[in-house]
């Protein structure tokens, strides 16, 4: 979009007056354009953690943290979770519009027919220890993918960018499912083109060659909804990692591997695994006050996993849908009175009435309830973040494609506030 500024900000210091253009977006806060600040004023801005920094222009996802609103290309996440399905959401994120029936009929088989991995990649898995965390495996396999699909690594060729995008969206369920199978010593199950995206993933995870495995439609619908809820989320840490890697011209497979690595952290995508482990450690509702006290204790590094968010200062809309889905799926699966769900709901109730959490606007985020559903489906906690990565692959790719296609994009290269030693000369060891 061509940005036009109707107003500006004045920065006055050291007898300088610098005019900085202000741009108004379609949604969200105005932005102050500081791109010429260093050249004009010989100063940097300082914003570790980028709490007040817009890193790019984007038209893909919008978050209103105060309202607790999340839009994919303008469509509210709760409507998409209820009425759409993941491959339709992939189309929306990649191309900007909901597909017509004909466009969807063309898109789905393009994904379905790319779900198999190069047969040599199966040997790559065998280089890992059986007890390797599935995130270490999918991060390695994803990075290695660039050595198998050389014909779609030229980022300057739009057709190769498209092929690489479809390949990664299609293959990530196979990559993640095979990481799970490898970790439990079971044989790899090949993808099946007669199954929808979520059912195919579940089949590759839970089928065994020894007997028929029929995917439960309730579970498949819940899985598909979890994919939709995790698909994209503006300029979060892993998406920013993908954009920064892509800004150097790195091939798309390497950029997504970088995103997987960043997502693994417990402050980010690793929180779903950490949240369920925390709920299990709490165990019963009578132990909740002890953990609330620890979360508030500045001398204790413990935090309530699945709580708080850099942007949401209200309920994470995904957590709301996830909570409703947890109730529904557990009920339909006959898992009544799930103790972990009881602890989660009571922990949420207590935390949201505690001044510490209220003052800091800390609410449950997407990771607070997702683990309960994934656990009920039968996944080990170690598979929670790989499932997050699987779903987020389309968001990373959509953001990467948007950046590559932006004629103004250049390599990301932040500066610093240097507080190290000033200039000094080398001294020989005998003089130190
Ligand atoms: C995801 O960015 C995205 O969009 C990410 C994501 C996506 O879809 O890509 O939404 C996915 O990563 C969700 C977040 C998952 N992480 C967790 O659930 C881990 C637990 N949450 C926290 O670590 C924390 O809330 C963050 C990392 C999510 C956000 O941290 P910020 O924005 O840097 O906030 P902060 O650390 O400055 O906290 C502000 C205050 C601090 O207290 P004071 O110093 O002001 O006294 O709130 C406190 C914090 O100590 N606080 C918490 C807390 N989170 C913040 N206290 C207890 N428990 C928590 N979970």
Q: H/E order of the elements?
A: EEEHEEEHHHHHHHHHHHHHHHHH
Oligomer: single chain
**Proportion of strand residues:** 5-15%
Write out the strand line-up for the largest beta sheet, numbering strands in chain order: 1-2-3
Mean pLDDT across residues: 95
Hetero compounds: s-citryldethia Coenzyme A
Helix run count: 18
Helix content: 40-55%
- Number of DSSP strand runs: 6
Poorly predicted runs are none
Shape label: globular
* Most strands sheet: 3 strands, antiparallel
Based on secondary structure, the structural category is mainly alpha
Radius of gyration (Å): 23 Å
Distance between the ends: 58 Å
What does this molecule look like?
It is a single chain. The chain is mostly helical and 432 residues long. Helices cover 49% and strands 6% of the residues. It has helices at residues 37-41, 77-83, 86-95, 101-112, 121-125, 134-144, 158-183, 197-206, 217-229, 237-247, 252-263, 271-282, 288-296, 317-332, 339-351, 355-359, 366-377, 384-405, and strands spanning 7-13, 16-23, 31-32, 61-64, 69-72, 75-76. The chain has a 3-stranded antiparallel β-sheet with strand order 1-2-3. S-citryldethia Coenzyme A is lined by residues 233, 236-237, 267-269, 271, 295, 303-311, 360, 362, 365-367. Residues 233, 236-237, 267-269, 271, 295, 303-311, 360, 362, 365-367 line the site of s-citryldethia Coenzyme A (SDX).
């Amino acid at each position: 979009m061509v940005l036009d500024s109707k107003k500006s900000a004045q920065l006055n210091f050291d007898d300088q007056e610098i005019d900085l253009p202000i741009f108004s977006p379609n949604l969200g806060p105005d932005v102050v354009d500081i791109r010429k600040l260093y050249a004009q004023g010989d100063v940097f801005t300082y914003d570790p953690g980028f709490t007040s920094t817009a890193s790019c222009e984007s038209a893909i996802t919008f978050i209103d943290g105060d309202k607790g609103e999340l839009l994919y290309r303008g469509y509210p996440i709760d409507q998409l979770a209820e009425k759409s399905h993941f491959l339709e959401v992939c189309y929306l994120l990649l191309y900007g519009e909901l597909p017509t029936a004909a466009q969807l009929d063309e898109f789905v088989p393009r994904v379905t027919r790319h779900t198999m991995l190069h047969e040599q990649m199966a040997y790559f898995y065998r280089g890992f220890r059986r007890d390797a965390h599935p995130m270490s495996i999918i991060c390695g396999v994803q990075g290695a993918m660039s050595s198998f699909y050389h014909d779609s690594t030229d980022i300057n060729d739009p057709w190769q960018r498209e092929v690489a995008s479809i390949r990664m969206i299609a293959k990530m369920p196979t990559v993640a499912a095979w990481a799970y199978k490898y970790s439990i010593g079971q044989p790899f199950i090949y993808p099946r083109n007669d199954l929808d995206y979520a059912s195919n993933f579940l089949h590759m995870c839970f089928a065994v060659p020894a007997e028929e495995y029929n995917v439960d439609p309730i579970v498949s619908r819940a899985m598909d909804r979890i994919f939709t809820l995790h698909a994209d989320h503006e300029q979060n840490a892993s998406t920013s990692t993908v954009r920064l890697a892509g800004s150097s011209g790195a091939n798309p497979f390497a950029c997504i591997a970088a995103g997987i690595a960043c997502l693994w952290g417990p402050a980010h995508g690793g929180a779903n695994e950490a949240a369920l482990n925390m709920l299990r450690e709490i165990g019963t509702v009578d132990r909740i006050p002890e953990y609330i006290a620890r979360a508030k204790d500045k001398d204790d590094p413990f935090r309530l996993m699945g709580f708080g968010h850099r942007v949401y200062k209200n309920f994470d809309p995904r957590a709301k849908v996830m909570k409703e889905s947890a109730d529904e799926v557990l009920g339909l699966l006959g898992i009544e009175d799930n103790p972990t769900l009881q602890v989660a709901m009571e922990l949420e109730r207590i935390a949201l009435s505690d001044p510490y959490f209220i003052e800091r606007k800390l609410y449950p985020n997407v990771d607070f309830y997702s683990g309960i559903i994934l656990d009920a489906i039968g996944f080990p906690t170690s598979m929670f973040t790989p499932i997050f990565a699987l779903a987020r692959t389309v968001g990373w790719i959509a953001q990467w494609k948007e950046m590559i296609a932006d004629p103004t994009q250049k390599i990301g290269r932040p500066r610093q506030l240097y507080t190290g030693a000033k200039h000094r000369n080398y001294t020989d060891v005998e003089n130190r």
